[in-house]
Amino acid sequence: MDELKLILEEDDYQNKNGLEVKNRGFYEEKISNFEENFTDDENIGKIGNFELCGHFWCTQYSYHENEDNYFEINFQNLDTQIEDKNDLIKFVISFKDSENSTRYKSYISSLCFFKDVNINRSEGYSNFIVKEDYDENIKVLIKNNDIMINIYLCIYESNKDLYNEYFNKFKNQICKNEKYEIQEEIIYEFAVDYWNKNRNLLFSPYFKIENYTW
Description:
By secondary structure, the protein is α+β, with helices and mostly antiparallel strands. Helices cover 17% and strands 35% of the residues. It contains three helices and eleven strands. It has helices at 2-14, 131-137, 160-175; strands at 21-31, 44-52, 55-64, 70-77, 88-96, 104-108, 112-113, 125-130, 147-156, 208-209, 212-213. Strands 1, 5, 6, 7 and 9 form a five-stranded antiparallel beta sheet that branches. Strands 2-3-4-8 form a four-stranded antiparallel beta sheet. A two-stranded antiparallel sheet has the order 10-11. Strand 3 (55-64) and strand 4 (70-77) form a beta hairpin. It is globular and about 55 Å long. The two termini are 31 Å apart.
């Protein structure tokens, strides 16, 4: 858990987002017969209805066998009502060797509105992991077809003005000289590990916007 906390706490200490943490929480579950879930009709496994930071969540994981071949991990809020729709969240999902806690692979989400991962509004937040990444960093952690999944969640106090200021600056880089009507707006953010050390060609994770994969 300490390693996952450090990933998000680095943002807090450096005040990268300018946000105050409202709640933090950690959840861990051992998944048995992990890859056997990929052989059923829907290729979907699920960690259902667990409580974290006073809210209810589910996590689904699936392997898509098509021309792209990718692994998907999805995080979704199940609350029927949200007290403050402008609260923001960020989380880390980690896959860990069930027999050796020093071997793990973590994936960090972007900063997003709580409401945008709620079941009443969306299908949740998905991280798409290419086959090569899955084989090299997750598959090797499976022991006797078991694996640990850890989730560390931060909920931030609502700060719609700050988020909109960032969003508008980003949007203006695209829309400044456009004369077309904007039908839908959304922003996607992802973390790049070892940016200064990596000299290879880099690709973003697969992500969904308006039911399209990018």
